[in-house]
Automatic annotation (TrEMBL), chains A, D:
Protein name: Molybdopterin synthase sulfur carrier subunit
InterPro entries from the UniProt entry: Beta-grasp_dom_sf (IPR012675), MOCS2A (IPR044672), Mopterin_synth/thiamin_S_b (IPR016155), ThiS/MoaD-like (IPR003749)
Keyword Nucleotide-binding appears in the UniProt entry: yes
Gene this protein is translated from: moaD
Gene Ontology MF, one: nucleotide binding
Native source organism of the sequence: Emticicia agri
A biological-process GO annotation: Mo-molybdopterin cofactor biosynthetic process
Source domain of life: Bacteria
Gene Ontology CC terms: molybdopterin adenylyltransferase complex
Pfam families referenced in this protein's UniProt entry, alphabetically: ThiS
Residues annotated as transmembrane: none
Family per similarity comment: Belongs to the MoaD family.
Entry keyword set: Nucleotide-binding
Length: 80, 141, 141, 80
């Protein structure tokens, strides 16, 4: 399936764009997405953490992705 | 509890007084306010300015979750959380948190927990701009 | 450390913003403010207004002692303590305490200790005025 | 010696005036002053506490009073 991922903060700098499109097998999980990104962008290994938000909520690694999900990369936050 | 909670993500300068005015009630015993400011240096290196960005809808919903939790846990009267995004100069205010409570101890504890949690869970990022470069704060070890 | 400490006993309404502005510095990491307000009831009994009086020179010197101690103990950048005397209506502000610090935890701890200590040692008294009488707060068991 | 005592808060209500004058033996202490006041004004026994300030500082019970001291009665404070 084709997914669109939104990239904030340092993840946008690493990937080089705000909206990143990629393909994953149907039933792919959040963990699969993280693995795919780590392979394509070795710099992700330098981050303190990487969380994924699905539809404006933090997602567990085991959750399954769907084509129309709003998928967002959340590197370590630093508000306040 | 919508009327007890005031969450705002703003692209314009924050007003501490607006947060204070929101939380004042006639049955409040104490109000505690936390005001963040942009510091002029990090580990001795001069900061020129800070750029804040947010995943806006989720930043608002995560701030609201923290506020709801604080109201319940500490029996707050009201809470106001304003966060700014965009470019901030030294001394400007990225965040204001005001809480009111019947008892001041609860107000102190609640306000501190809200800013601690905000810094852990709300999808907002800041980039420090130095004379000779820039860095996303806390992104890498 | 006079320029780090701002102590005022005022017969006119307090300004939270004045306290905030005093404690803001370019090397501050966090500011914590406590704002006291006059509550509309005590133990369920409606309060009409409060009258505050102070032994003024000693009230100022005791507030200054607390501020000096807090600056030293918590390495504060600045501290502002304003207390009002006279007649206050419901919702008005008898006290504002603002502290700034490099680390927000120290600012919370310092601000809470200052208001706790102020309520124990500073010679200021308040009388609650009810519809049917008045009482000096905390004077008798 | 003749002493002048300033009375704040509930102590002014109990004594009935702001400036109260009384005589105590030379070398009288803060404790002696408190005893004298308690005898003359039994209502002082109802207070949670009574401190004495000498010249704008809290005074210990053992401190000796002098004629020109600024002596102030400090009932339980309730600022803030």
């Amino acid at each position: 399936m084709n997914l669109k991922v939104l990239c904030f903060g340092i993840t946008r700098d690493i990937i080089g764009q705000f909206e990143y499109r990629l393909s994953l097998p149907t039933e792919a999980t959040v963990a699969d997405l993280k693995n795919q990104l780590s392979m394509q962008f070795p710099k992700f290994a330098t981050l303190k953490s990487l969380r994924i938000a699905l539809n404006e909520e933090y997602a567990e690694d085991t959750m399954t992705l769907k084509e129309n999900d709003e998928i967002v990369l959340i590197p370590p936050v630093s508000g306040g | 509890m919508p009327s007890m909670i005031d969450i705002q993500l703003l692209h314009t300068p924050l007003s501490e007084q607006a947060c204070l005015d929101f939380v004042k009630t006639d049955d409040t015993g104490g109000i505690v306010v936390f005001v963040g400011t942009v510091r002029n240096q990090t580990k001795g290196k001069a900061v020129v300015r800070l750029d804040f960005e947010a995943y806006e809808p989720m930043a608002i919903s995560e701030m609201r979750k923290i506020a709801v939790q604080a109201v319940e846990q500490f029996s707050l009267k009201k809470i106001s959380v304003h966060h700014r995004v965009g470019t901030l100069a030294i001394g400007e205010v990225p965040v204001v948190i005001a809480v009111s409570s019947a008892h001041r101890k609860a107000a102190f504890d609640a306000c501190e927990l809200v800013i601690d949690t905000l810094k852990e869970t709300v999808p907002i990022w800041k980039k420090e701009i130095f004379e000779d470069g820039e860095v996303w704060v806390s992104a890498t070890p």
